[in-house]
Amino acid sequence: GEKNSSLLEICANEHDKAFNFNLETNEVYFVGENSVIGDITGMVDSGKNKHSEIAAEELPQDKELIDLFGRPLRMGIVKPNNIYKILYEKDLKTRAVFDRLINRNVANVIEAMVHMKPKEGVDYTPVELDLLLVNRGPYDNIRWTRALYDHGLLTLEEMEGNSRIANEVLKYINFVANFNVPVNVAVDRDDEKPGKVMGDKEFLEILHGHYNTLSEEIASYGHPLGFGDVDCIYIDGTDTVERNSKKFVGALRSKIIS
User: Fold this and answer.
1) Distance CA 233, CA 252 (A)
2) Which of 30, 70, 165, 188 has its Cα between 20 and 30 A from that of 114?
3) DSSP 3-state percent helix, strand, coil across the chain (nearest 5)
4) pLDDT digits (tens, 9 = 90+) for 168-178
5) What is the value of pTM for the model shown?
6) For the chain, how big is the Rg over CA atoms in Å?
7) Torsion angle of the four alpha carbons 213, 219, 223, 228, in this order, in degrees rounded to the nearest 10
8) Do residues 16 and 40 touch, judged by C-beta distance below 8 A?
């Protein structure tokens, strides 16, 4: 199953923080007016985590970015659905029950980082990030919500209500990376893990269809339909780690410089 995690680890994980603070370092994270906020979307086991971690290692060491900011890039990764993924039983029916909570938590974390400002006299270290990556942010949540509805696990009213929550915070996202792999690749990779992520292949086919639609929109229009001001890239998760890392990190670097 999932590896054992303490509450401290969930709130202090360098690459998968569930909230906008780190209990271990006593830091609270904010984003500024010029910060890049990226939504990392995509199929199960498509490389989202790996390439986000590579970006977190490489970008703060980038010499041109150091010259640009006069210091190493400040970058953070949050994964708000971790609080549900790790602490509770995970199957499709439970995921459907949690769908509204996950949409709300993602929206709350993003809005907290955008709107809240540091308060004097409180014992924590405020950190304004130049780059925030939201692993499974609102663009991703919409795909999951619609797939759960298509699979009969949400009513139309529930799907529309949950999607509205995600839609409210799409305006804060200015970069989207959509990682995708075929269902059989996702299943094979999942089978190699100690605990399987999703055992319902029919659902994975539905979910994959939604990610394919997003990929096709990005390929055809350069962005998801209706959101022309968002920079987007598509990552083929079956390509090599080296090529995908170069593409992903390069796109983030270009967005930051622009």
Assistant:
1) 10
2) 70
3) 50, 20, 30
4) 999 999 999 99
5) 0.90
6) 18
7) -120
8) no
